[in-house]
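Re: your question about TIGR02679 family protein

S., sorry for the slow reply, the queue was backed up all week. Below is exactly what I fed in.
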Amino acid sequence: MTENTGTPRRPLAHIDQQRLFRLLGGPELAWLVDRCRRRMERDEPLTGPVTLAAPTAAERAAAERLLGRAPGAGRSLSMRLDTVDAVLRRSGVSPDGLAAAVTALTGPVPRLAEVREQEVNAWRDAYAPLDNLIRTVRPELADWADRLRQDGRIRRLARTPHAAHTLLGDAAQALRGLPADPALSLPAFAARVLGDAHALDDGTPLATLVLSGVRALAGFPDGSGAEWRREAWASAGLLKDALSSTVLTLGLRGTPALDWTADRGEPTVLTLRQLTRTPPRTAPTVVYICENPTVLATAADTHGPVCPPLVCLQGQPSAAALRLLRHLEAHGSALLYHGDFDWGGLRIATALLRRVPWRPWRYTAGDYRRAATATALAPPLTGTPTTAEWDPNLGPTLSELGVRIEEETVLDDLLADLAP
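Result:
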């Protein structure tokens, strides 16, 4: 590093401030001072020429006053920094030269290398709350924390190291208390742990980060949408609107309430709250799953207390339905699924299969072809085609036959399978 680029060794009091401002401090030479400052920030020497394209008459005049001569009459204005440095030293305006003069005019010049190093250190320190969490109580989150560092998520959620430190501190505080046992509402947890019932509301950076950590803790699969978020929170014992998410069941046992309704052959509506706090204590060997409530209601009317366990999705699988089916499957139940033979039905079945393993219950290409052949007035198939992961032939067969077969159309076959 040359003497011209470093911080002046003698105090700035040696500079003649008034003469310096007259020579170099006006707006006509601001471009020159700015060029010098940028070089100093990059630790580059203040030597060699600098050029200003299309200078004004005032800028030429200011350069002439500084140098004591005309800098040239070309279309651009060129000045050698070595010459400017020599003029300032020789005149006594700035005995330490050009670098000292720039510092006197614009203030201390931060070196970019130092700034970058400070920023790197600040971002490293921002992760301290997460590092402490992993070291003390959550070593299983180490891989997740590494991904956060690598994918730049924290920098996107919190633009500065200070904001990141605060965000990660709050996230670590929340994750330290999970999973919640017994389960409680998400707002109640946020109020208790973070002092703000809305701290984990959808869309906030903190909610995004904590939900990501929750998924890492629970091994929860990728997804999107309100039901997916509801189920993901529930996997850590946090209930987000836990009463509105429900699932319809018949013949299921394992709690006093379920035993009572099963003995009477009556359908039961279970909430996500119930399934999180008091899931069934037993799991049957086989659980049937249907899409439409008509199937379950008719099964209750037909078979009553002897109907095998049946779960109805009532459309897209809710967080409560997924919670129940995951619990049953994890405890040994085999899940058999049937839905409508149309593009919407295939999408519902696919959404369920990607979250819970099941086998088809009269829900293959052969089953569809037999039902379509036996149905005289089946409505036409509409909508956008899709695939069926459990049977690659099912989608093409729907396209070939072009009719929609709802569950109610094959209700007799389904009831026969449910007969004791």
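Residues 114-239 form one domain. The CA atoms of residues 337 and 361 lie 5 Å apart.

Happy to talk it through on Thursday.
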